[in-house]
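Hi Prof. W.,

I finally got the Heterochromatin protein 1 prediction working! I wasn't sure whether to trim anything, so I left the full sequence exactly as given:
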Amino acid sequence: MGKKTDNTESSGKGSDAEEEEYAVEKIIDRRVRKGKVEYYLKWKGYAETENTWEPESNLDCQDLIQQYELSRKDEERAAASRRDRPSSSNKSKETTGRVSTSASTTSKRKSEEPAAPASNKSKRTTEADQDSTDSLQTGSTGFDRGLEAEKILGASDNNGRLTFLIQFKGVDQAEMVPSSVANLQIPQMVIHFYEERLSWYSDNED
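And this is what came out:
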């Protein structure tokens, strides 16, 4: 039950305040105003437009008040629990970060392992020849990479094309370079190479 004040006019006697009893159907909301607790009530037999805020001291429905307070506290605890619980997207992001870190660590360890030395000189020579052939096939030479020629080691006929085996500075393996490229890039070194060979043949003839 609750109390509402209803002022009605009595004929010939002015206004008399009559205090009537109303039945509370349910408690909808709660607030504290000027230090006093008030509840927003739905009155039994009245429309929603007749809902009013009433101070707790005016109410005689402790069962409804206790039920509402318990329900309100349960909702507050549930809301706090949802706020404290990390979202699934954050968990997924953390897991992905750990996996990525592990992968990068594994890659770093693998890159730090020393390269296995070549088993013998023959294997190194074969690899050098293969690299020289690859440079001819791709058309890329040490000159294209900005390297400086150090010495011409030899010459050969590669499928009808004259090529020079050139040692570049700062590079361990020599490269096969077409004679047309060598004549353009290092003409003096090519001339010196021919002069050495001519001198060698002249000495043999003597």
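The chain is about 45% helix and 30% strand. Does that look reasonable to you?

Thanks,
D.
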